Amino acid sequence: MRRRNRWTLVLLAFGGLVTLAFGLAIAGYSYVNYRYETAPDPSATQTVVFDVPRGSGLSSIADRLETDGLIGNATLFKLVTRMRGNAANFKAGEFALTPGSSMAKIYDDLANGRAILYPFTVPEGATSAQVVRALDRLETLKDDDPSVPPEGSLLPETYLTPRGMAQSALLAQMASAQDDLLDELWDARAPDLPFGTREEAIILASVIEKETGIGMERDKIAGLFINRLRRGMKLQSDPTIIYGITGGDPIRRRIRQSEIDRVTDWNTYQIAGLPRTPICNPGEAAIRAVLNPAETDALYFVADGTGGHAFARTLAEHNRNVARWRQIQRERGLR
Q1: For the residues 49-56, what does the mean pLDDT come to?
Q2: Alpha-carbon distance 208 to 229, whole Å?
Q3: Distance CA 108, CA 91 (A)
Q4: DSSP string of 88-157?
Q5: What is the CB neighbour count within 10 angstroms for residue 310?
Q6: Distances (CA, A) of 104 to 26, 52, 74, 79, 263
Q7: Are 21 and 84 in contact, with CB atoms under 8 Å apart?
Q8: Alpha carbon of residue 331 to chain centroid
Q9: How many beta carbons lie within 10 A of that of residue 284, not counting itself?
Q10: pLDDT tens digits, residue range 15-45?
Q11: Cα(303)–Cα(146) distance, rounded to whole angstroms?
Q12: Does residue 241 contact residue 273 with C-beta atoms inside 8 Å?
């Protein structure tokens, strides 16, 4: 009987200890979660930029958060993050964090929030070499020394990039964007165009892109060049001369007769048909114009002094337009 009472007391004591331990565990867990979930300063609104380099682990992120005053206890942050199975969910990039937020909010911003993105605009008509040089001036991108992509393979538009993105990755995104656009437009192209491949379409679009910056003219210039190709006429496009001389960089002067007479793979005054390669990266509007050109009987065009062009059906009409343009150039002191 005495032994039974002793075991009863032992069991009661053990049960009490288990209950106490369980209660303490619940209390500790509740306290830890309270600390993790509670914002020290809910009224805070000002944000700071916090950078998470690619490959950063939980420990380094938590320690830096504490050092920067964004969380109060790195150990507690790491403990709860691991307990919840979230240690591998952090993304690389820059994030706008609010000091005074709860650790839970800080975690959510880093794991599920949108990284700060920086815009990079590729202007219509830029060459691939010019695009790569522009990337070198972006401090937010990782310079992994990419090779210059093939001319005409990039789609000019504005791209949003996180800090640390590799230059080569952004170039690949530009090339993919052009592929996607051609996939969308190719099957809906006009019938009986005097070219049969996407590459040829981009070549002609690049010439049109460099001939005019006026959107309403692209379709008409496309139709004009289509007319010339169908008749076996040379395109006689000045930008193709320049590309053969400089690779697409401007020469900032009038083209010399010796340069017009020089035979290159791009000089359409000297070669029939299309240049060997694109002469720039054409934008979406120029690509659309090539695939669905305007109906026109024009075969010639020249600058008209207003930023646009004068179009002509006959060589005689064109020569009169050229004479007017030469007079405008003389009056403006252009050489």
Answers
A1: 87
A2: 14
A3: 11
A4: T----EEEEE-TT--HHHHHHHHHHSPPPEEEEE--TT--HHHHHHHHHT-TTSB---PPPPPTT-S--S
A5: 19
A6: 19, 17, 12, 12, 68
A7: no
A8: 42
A9: 17
A10: 555 555 454 545 555 666 677 877 777 777 7
A11: 38
A12: no
DSSP one-letter code for 46: -
Q: Which amino acid is at 161?
A: T
What tokens does 41 get?
A: 């300063």
What would the pLDDT profile of 231-242 be if each residue is shown by its tens digit? 999 999 999 999
**Cα(94)–Cα(114) distance, integer angstroms:** 9
Give the span between the Cα atoms of 36 and 106, in whole angstroms: 10
Instruction: Write down how long the chain is.
Output: 335
pTM of the model: 0.79
Phi and psi of 129, rounded to 5°? -65, -40
Q: What is the pLDDT of residue 3?
A: 58
Angle between helix axes 167-185 and 198-211 (nearest 10 degrees) is: 100
* Interacting residues of 38 by C-beta distance below 8 A, sequence separation 6+: 102
Enter the tokens of residue 219: 């379709």
pLDDT tens per residue across span 142-191 = 999 999 999 999 999 999 998 888 999 999 999 999 999 999 999 999 99
Q: In whole angstroms, what is the distance from residue 103 CA to residue 235 CA?
A: 65
